[in-house]
Amino acid sequence: MIQKTYILDTNVYGELLIEPNSDMLVKKIKMNKSFFIYGVDLIERELSETPLHIKYKGRIAQKLLVELFESLSDEILTLTPLAKYLADDYFKKYKELAKSGKYKLKQKYDEKSLKTDFQIIAIASISSVNIVVSSDKRTMLSQLASDVYAHINKINGLRTPELLEYKKFKEVYLK
């Protein structure tokens, strides 16, 4: 069986946590040896920044999210200077295309979040990760962002990872 590599975006850990059948789903993900899940230091940091007052089933959500991240991550990838540079190129192209009028932006993007999304995709592209899973259709999975990744990665001779919506990812495991 061919192993595929994945990165789960920050929001996916929250989605997995609140699933009605969370334990079963996480167990299925861990047991599926055809998948290799990369954690990303940026994602772990974001999960660690979850406010401590947020509780889930009487427990501190931050602790649960970080534990989930650690239990699913087969290896941790870090943000390198090259990935930062590539993400900056994504951001410049994104701003350029956003101003072009070709894309309908429903709301203004949060620059910090967008840059983090771009850093995650840059890490994935440089590391030849097959699939990035997210539920963020507004930025990371948007057509504008997809066009940006394809354009900049083509210039740099990189393969853009497949972008998969969390709902579709979940369907694979719930069969």
Give your account of this protein's structure.
The protein is α/β, with parallel strands linked by helices. The chain has eight helices and seven strands. Strands 5-2-1-6-7 form a five-stranded parallel sheet, with helices on both faces. A two-stranded antiparallel sheet has the order 3-4. Helix 5 crosses helix 7. The longest helix has 19 residues, at 81-99. It is globular, with a radius of gyration of 16 Å.
Largest sheet: 5 strands, parallel
Report the span from N to C terminus: 18 Å
Q: Order of SSEs, N→C?
A: EHHEHEEHEHHEHEH
- Beta-strand share of residues: 5-15%
Low-confidence stretches: none
**Percent in helix:** 40-55%
Counting DSSP E segments of at least 2 residues, the number of strands comes to 7
Based on the model shown, name its key terms.
single chain; alpha/beta; two-stranded antiparallel ribbon; 8 helices; 7 strands; globular
